[in-house]
Amino acid sequence: MQIHIPTPLRPFAGKQSTVSVSATTVAEALAALTSQFPELHKHLYTDEGKLRAFVNVYLNDEDIRYLDHKENARVTEADSLSIIPSIAGGAPVAEAPIAATLTPEEMGRYSRHLILPEVGEAGQLKLKNARVLCIGAGGLGAPLTMYLAAAGVGTLGIVDFDVVEASNLHRQVIHGTSDIGRPKLDSAEDSLKAINPNVKIVKFATKLTSENALEIFKDFDIVADGTDNFPTRYLVNDACVLSGITNVYASIFRFEGQASVFATEDGPCYRCLYPEPPPPGLVPSCAEGGVLGILPGLLGIIQATEVIKLILGQGEPLVGRLLLVDTLGMHFRELKLRKNTDCPVCGTHPTLTKLIDYAEFCGLPSKATHPATIVNGVPQMQATELKRRMDAGDNLFVLDVREPYEFAIAQIGGHLIPLGDLPQRVQELDAKREIVVHCKAGGRSQRAAEFLAEKGFKNIHNLAGGITAWSDYVDASVPKY
Ligand SMILES: [Zn+2]
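Above are the sequence and the zinc ion SMILES. Below is the predicted complex in structure-token form.
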């Protein structure tokens, strides 16, 4: 006879949707199934050997609880069994069910969901009781939170400590022109409440850190990672794995994006994909490399879709798959991701069992431990210090390693040699002079300074925070971009 395996249990049944067994009763059929796939046993049965309360078994179209002989009901080769877990998907659902009904207003609001068999009233209640934490109210966080709020996700947590800037508005559609200068959290809350006042918004006006992440995560079922930097991305991943919370991931750069679902019970995590971060400066951030405004909209909505599917327990989540989106060619490709048994955080013998210093892990100066820093042998100069030295008439040579189009937007009188041209043009520089290298935010200039040090330059500084820090701390009339 055939046993139909639901999507969330397929990973434990050799990824098969149906399994054939020989049996004369329902109990025998289930025993044959779990002896073939021992991993399934703990998902179907309690320690006492009883079928779990949220697992229903149907013989053809009848729930076996309602059959005369229940599990001992006789079966033939032509019969089929279906396992129907009431709570499916990778997301642990809130332990205490809060709402058991929809209000008349909600019935009207969600009517197009309610008539979808895959959602229905039961699904809409799952959404209402779900608690989703979004890291960042920026490019990805904007569409993500707006669609989750619209869809009726009951509790939305948002972690963000930025204020809205003009350069955010070409993509962060949750904020408007009149929000410039406001905390993103407040602006986002206003927009989300306007979309759906039923949603409870929980604001965390803080930077996510190793000290607060587990405490913040513990009240949520799913985390959606909308961060734009490597230290936070590794922090989110590790905190999700350690807390047993699914991590719905996306990242964007220029015209391309990636998305996946990490840290489900049996799926891979971000570290299985990328065990270590790239060295600082190698992969520019969106602030440095630019991003097509629409792109985070597209990827954020893919994230929102995955979140909703996980809550509903419908469809095939992006577990073990990396979706690659190329908007210029408009290609969507998919790569298989495997769980790495040697993964330091989710492998069979994890070496990472608590959160670490992620700035240090990513090769960035850790603010907590090194207030005056030397990074990889390169002294870091603060913008205010550079200004003081310039005003004092010191014989400094300022080297700008950004691209010409950035130089056209804003500059502080540096000599322009884009990072990529530096090896060919290094003879333009006087190795005896004291040189301060800058870029937009400090990443590319750090690499340039390290390159010059290797070439024998002795007196090199990196401008910490780049021209952005100059705008922030020295001269606000230098445009930020
Ligand atoms: Zn892993």
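Confidence is low (pLDDT under 50) at residues 86-96, 367-371.
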